[in-house]
Queue: 2 jobs
Job 1
Amino acid sequence: MRRSWDRNSNLECPHRTPSTAVHHLQLPEMVSFDDLLAAVEHAHGKPIKISLVPSDTLPGLSGLWLETDMKSHILVPESHPKLLRMHVICHEFGHILLRHQGCEGLVSPMPSVFKHLGGQRGIKRMLARSPRWNELEKAAEEVAYLLSSFVMQGAPTPASNFEKVFG
Amino acid sequence: MSLLQLLPSLVLWAVVLTRIVGLRFGWKPGILTAMILVATGTTLNIDAVYTSVDYWLGNRNVLNLVVHVVLGLGMTELSRLVVAATGASRTRWRLLVLAGVVMAGAQAALLLAAHTPGSATNFTDVFAADPSIAWYQGLFFAWIGLITAYTGVECLRRTRVGESESFRIGFDIIAASCFVGVMAVAIKLLLVAQEATKSVAHQPEVLYVGYRSLIALTLVGFSIGFALPAYQRARQQTTARVRRRDAIERLQPIVTRLLKTDAGQRAREAAALSLHPRSTKEQLYRWIIFVDDIRVENPDLLSADESKFLDDIEASIAEPGPINVPAPVGN
């Protein structure tokens, strides 16, 4: 699928609540995870690469978002249960959609992170999901709950057009 | 005869009520509008209802026009959905609506131009000798026959790939019902023609009962066809709801116990947790994420059985959807 990213989209709507950030995505009633990722990439204005990493890469964290000029990376511990992994990714989507500014202090305690990124050059933003909940984290978490409801909404969409229309 | 009128009406309203209740559980409106219109028209056409309501409207068969318009709109709406399902151009849909509107206008003009005193449930027998009424009846049934045939053909030609079993069977019944409906319309047109030309009918009573029987069969077929997938969906939703309720009941003591720990207090800040057990997906999801957050940080706070139970719930709710993602992308 060809994807295009709107590089000016980051400049729109600077003050967002979790619900407006999700509403802005204009998601249908139910989406696949891939479609959700595509919608967040579009809103973000750049591609997002999701990587499963060994748990010791992110000590004490359940997820990490790093942004460079060209793309964003979301790292999730591979040992986490599948549902929690999806939730953590949605949490990092929350930071992206809410345009949180990140924290530089996270870089030094996790040198192994850069093995997965090919170096630490060009990182301009970094936010983690950890058990310490401040207002930014709570807002991103609320976005995660909202997004997950779209991914988990109801039964799968039928493949048949007739069933979609009449069902 | 009254059973042939009552039964379709009751079955149609049962389907309508089921669909209305389904709206509360996230069902799409789908055929609801069409079914309400067809059920209304069918109910108004019951002899006892017809004479009572028409008497109230002036005792000159204005209700017959109302029934025609309501049934015509219902079948046109059904055809609109068929057009949408087949992905046909909007031009076809616009033509359909235009023809329906012209037909409704022509029907009103023809009925109002004629003199039709006294509510008559056997409208064709009594008035079809009047050319206006013959055209009025003929045009209406020709239109209904046309859109019913179109609906039947498209339902029969549809691609069945990806359909659930109940939907496939239901729609095959609907396709068959459409053709039964076309046969009914053909008989009705024959009766109208006989009355209009004042020709002697061969066993008109047989034709009349045949027409009523085929119409009843068509409407009951429609109802069963639409009810089957609705029944299947309701059963699936009930099963899922029971499963969620059981999971929440078993999770509640775990959540309550974990909330008393330091890790639980920290995790609660983000989870906006309610301890009131509601068997909603949202509730179950929040509780699972809450317990998972604690489990990955402090695995010792959960027993092996509890962890296994949690894995089982997660697998069951992750199964149908795409949440088995993400696949590793690079490393």
Job 2
Amino acid sequence: MTEEKVGVYVCHCGHNIAGTVDVEAVAEWAADMPNVAISRDYKFMCSSLGQELIEEDVKEYGLTRVVVAACSPHMHEPTFRRACERAGLNPYLFEMANIREHDSWVHADDINAATEKAKAIVAGSIRRVMELQPLEPFIAKIDEPTLVVGGGIAGINTALEIANAGHPVYMVEREPSIGGHMAQLDKTFPTLDCSACILTPKMFDVGNHPNITLMTYSEVEQVDGYVGNFTVRVRKKARKIITDLCTGCGDCWSRCPAKVVDDVYEAGLGYRTAIYRPFPQAVPKYPVIDVDTCIYYEKGTCKACQKFCPTDAIDFDQEDEIVVLNVGNIVLATGYKLFDARRIPQYGYGRLANVFTSMEFERMVNASGPTGGKVVLRDGVTEPQTVGIVHCVGSRDRNYNQHCSNTCCMAALKFAHLVKERTGAEIYNFYIDIRTPSKNYEEFYHRILEEGAHLIRGRAAEVTDAARLPGEEGKLIIQAEDTLIGKQRRVPVDMVVLMAAMEPYEDAVEVSHRFGIGCSEAGFFTEKHPKLDPVATMTDGVFIAGACAGPKDIPESVEQGAAAAARVLTLIGQGEIKIEPIRATIDEDRCSGCRICNNLCPYSAIEFIEELGVSRVNPALCKGCGTCVAACPSQVIEGQHFTFDSIMAQIEGILYDRIEDTERVTYLGSQPAEAR
Amino acid sequence: MPEKNYSEINPAWEGRKPVIVGFLCNWCSYRAADLAGTSRFGYPATLRDIRIMCTGRLDPTFVIKALREGADGVLVMGCHPHQCHYDEGNYKAMRRMALLRRTLAQLGVHPDRIQLGWASAAQGALFTETVAAMTERIAELGPLEWRDTIEDNITPRMPSPEIEEVVHGR
Amino acid sequence: MSPANDHYAYYPGCSIRSTSKAYEQSTMKVIESLGMTFQEVEDWNCCGATEYFSINSLPAYSLVARNLSLAAKQGASDLVAPCSACYLNLHKTDKYMGKYQDLNKDVNQALAAGNLGYEPGSLQIRHLLDVIVEDIGFDAIAEKIEKPLWGLRVAPYYGCLIVRPDSKYNHEYPTHLDELLRILGATVVDFPLKTHCCGGHMTQISDETAYELIRRLLHNADEYQADAIATICPMCQMNLDVFQPQVNRMFKTDFNIPILYFTQLMGLAFGISEKELGFDSQVISANAALKKIADEAPEKTKKARRDKKALPMPESLP
């Protein structure tokens, strides 16, 4: 250990460092430090000439460690590691001293202090690098199949891209049919294409693709493993239908006497039977029995569906099935749920009959919806003469969700158009801002303005039936400040549509833990980098796509679905992946089996080996956070590359000028004296 | 930041300046410090930082070691709670630091010398403010001189103060 | 389960000894039935109502803080005020003294001149309704009911000061008074203006403004066929009751809705006589409304046959 030969390189970075830090002085000073074999300063270390300097010195001087004092490791650590590798030196025997972002750039008006600090940082790096050990990355093979969780438009696209590339895909969807929220929509902005028309061909492709195994009415219960090697347990809930026999003829649901409000597909605006197919274009075409509302499960009678089924495909005793899948990559595309507008009592949803949510309205205007596409009040008959549309219900609101839901302005304008088209009613939109950023969206907005919708810039304060002025009796009154004219307005309307926010599902946090990824406090899954890596997560092998990562519209969901597929295909194509060797290892000879570390690991990477009475870290699950390393009371867990010894040495080095050498207590390190 | 004369704030400095050792987590606070650099924000040259992957890695021994080897204060900064890159490491850091500060207070180390804060990778300005504020505080408290004042004299000299566990940083 | 009896200091406020005697009368009867006692704050002074804070805030806070100090001195843990304005002033003072160090210093300096002092946070400031709903609880109340108010349609009127600027109850749509009235057996009207302003002191300053506000409340309650309005604040009660004839004159309406304190309704349900509950002090008589109270629980309306054409309504939140 004391025979190490360290090469120190102090970079000028042009004027960036040299303008403030006396780089020559630092290099000169470093040359006198113990174990430093060669110390240089150079204009641009990251240039090919700079890197070659290192390579040549390693060979010529037999350097065993390298320190480069320059910019942030986030910039060039990989660059210099590669240079070391080319020179035959293990890349983990390299250390960067940050004397630019953390020194020259922030202490520009104090050359002395900046130079002093540079020396301290370099001293710390020299001491640290001497304690580092050579490390090899861990290679994991990538299993070919991919799991796509969620059968909405994002998940469908991911699945098709991967399947078309010739690789197997498992798709798991919680509802009885794929299609997601897009299947509920009528027309899609800005082209006003029929949503079902553009979605159903894709749904059909998924259902019939030779490479896609579709599991609907199913949920992922447990995920184990790591990138390239996930083991996933899926529960296929019992449909109570023998799908091999079912022809999808529909005799069963047409006979079912039990009717309930359909609050999933019809958003509560229509009814369905206990045995039902969610919608006519459902994929797969098989119905499902809702055991909570079926008369047979409650009273033991009826069984009308079974009596009338021509192929005897009903099986009331069918049980859930557990399936275990081995996949290499996972894509989460679980989508969003709509904000519950009852949480804002001043808008009257749930109390006042003619207040509707955006999804209810979507079902209303849908030709195959509960009103056959007619815009009517809650009585199912009366056409409204005036309609008010309230934007940002539950969005942009500190009391509920701070975020903007991205799609509601366009959807609200779309509704304004559809109402005008079908009823000629007067329309009032109450907005905070009109957000129409994407291609052709602004043009759509202007079209709606020209069609005569009244847009009032003012957040609706309340929707009430308490009439106050003449003309308000019997109406719903929307009160808002019209900020552009600076006056309070009360607008009496017949019908109100609330543009409810897009939120994560209630169990999103739980789901994120199940898959080992992060999510925001609200429940939107966290991407690896919000700008440059929006579909990857911090967990290798798990990707996210669509609204589950944040509110977005259909084109963005499709894009993310394809992006996630591309990332998966890269991994499948490479066939293997290098896992950084920054992880914890337990010295089993010295582990006392106290198990304090077991529960600390957020990735459950530490298991207890009963037969040996020791804990062991799974190197592929371990992400190298070091929490267990710090917690071990016996200090037998080593955090590779961030070992106890290397950090203690770095502390000593960084404070080199504070203690006289004679006063320094010889640091014995964490190993017992005999073992050194 | 022009060199301050710290002796004006507390004569005990006798011409030298405070030294604060910083432990910054790779994903958030270290990047915040990088951002402070890229943005050319200025702060006192009192902080000497060490990179660790996560504040969960912070062994309380590191803090004691730093103080013992001549640091006048230690600043630990990580990701905001609920945004830890490794899920929960910063919560572990919170618990350990709370206990550590109480323990060190009993040995005579003022709890303000050890601070735990949060800064996301986008908060270069917050990082800068944190370092400046801590420097001022350490300047007021004066040099620590652990080996002279504490090591030779470890008897509980202060009753355990009510330490506010609120960590600074937003 | 009645909490310990030396636990509550009671701050009556000025109105309750003059125009709103019925409120105190009924309150005392009700808490007696429930086995509670309140210790009145010795030598309490006016809370300043709404105006004083706008005129000179430091003396206003100090005035209120004097009451807090006296209550704390009595050893109480909670300070109960039946009037919403008093409640808000006491609560606001305690809260802001805790939040703003300068205010705390100045107020305590003022109090020191009278050998008093107050540490913010020493008392829990409570409105009477909150104490009854939270500390007594609906079960204990239900046990005391002898004559449920079956068939009486009541609109619960909270007024604004109990839910704004802060409250642990929903600011726009609190439901605890609704619940209480339901437990008493009344048919609770879903009153959308339940937290709208009653006009406050505007009755003295601009009667057009105030009467219009009062008219709206009465009109809406009338539309919903309320037999009575239940209030929790002397100001609200006075405005809606005393000024009801003026409102009728100004707007040519003929409202005749009795405005009752919720404690009066509680007392009625507990079987206490109207006289003891101060029913003779209202301007609008409650006699007609009280005759509507039936001897039997109203029949549960059969579920109407589903209108085939109508669209389903969402269920209300639990």
